[in-house]
Amino acid sequence: MSTELIVPTLGESITEATVSKWLKKIGDNFEADEPLVEIETDKITVEVPAPHAGSLKEIKVSEGADVEIGGILGILDESKGKTPSPKKTETKEEKIKEEVKAVKVETKSSPAKSSPSARKIAEENNIKLEYVTSSRSDGRINKEDVVSHLSSSNKKTTNKGEREEVVKMSKIRQTISKRLKEAQNTAAILTTFNEIDMSKVMEIRKSKNQEFQSRYEVKLGFMSFFVKAVVKSLQEYPAVNAEIKDENIIYKNHFDIGIAVGTEKGLVVPILKDANQLSFGEIETKIIDLSTKAKDGTLTMDDLTGGTFTISNGGVYGSMLSTPIINRPQSGILGMHNIQKRAVVVNDEIVIRPMMYVALSYDHRIIDGKESVGFLVKVKELLEDPSELVLGI
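Structure (tokenized):
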């Protein structure tokens, strides 16, 4: 009996996907829930599991091809389970090779514990995952581990005779391009700037980081302070947390903060849901979890759905100043930048302080200059005197 392998529903806004890799070949057997094919959407990469045990009879959509949601990926033959492969007589040399391989697998991470993106890049570069060392405590290999292995072993070569290389844009990159251009064409985007003296925040981090880390098992970062400051400022300036839909303005009474994360495939914005209800420790923990999932390619649609305002930290790449583009349909985005010691005037004296430029890009159709400047000044005040954030008053 044959059944169809269907592209699952992946979210309201997703209408098609690209087959990035078949994990089984025609004739291969599999068990129920075993991953058969990896597909990539404009948001995430997911593995489509087998609905039952059986074998792969036919591939309908080849690697690199697009398919609509609900489309047929392949045809499956049902069976009770995997059929054991016929045993072959091993030569003495083959047996020794298998024993050596088994030893290497024991000393390295198991290939089974790897992300889809890691397996893909390893296969493209003829790398065996048992030779790649995981940087994670659970032994799972992610893409960064494979890239690091490539770099250290110098296995990736380029043809110096070729002056250009043509690579098809991924679904994620296509969507990033489309949405950024739509934002520029649709919204009346303006950017306002300010600078923040980070002295007080840095003092708190230095004095409380060890205690914070022992309690929450994560470091106390800058992002939790910014998330807290942004939420309080949004509560005071609700238009910055709103959006335009048709001829209406929708004011959001919830605060779902998008945290922009750069990955190998492009920028993704996982959402910190109900950030106003989270403690400093919960914010830092969730940010690390979302960032790890983003880089591993394991984000779910729930991780990416929603969002009322976005924070982008270009400072991690060394950016001193930028004009971020809003993440539609949101109306505002805050750009953080690197911290540099600069000479500033405090109480009529020139002093050296760790300063950060911040930028708020906003949709001028809904947010006036007074609101945008007021919002950014409020963020500045809260971070230069974080007692209100820490005490929660």
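Residues 82-90, 99-112, 154-158 have pLDDT under 50 and may be disordered. DSSP finds ten helices and 19 strands in the chain.
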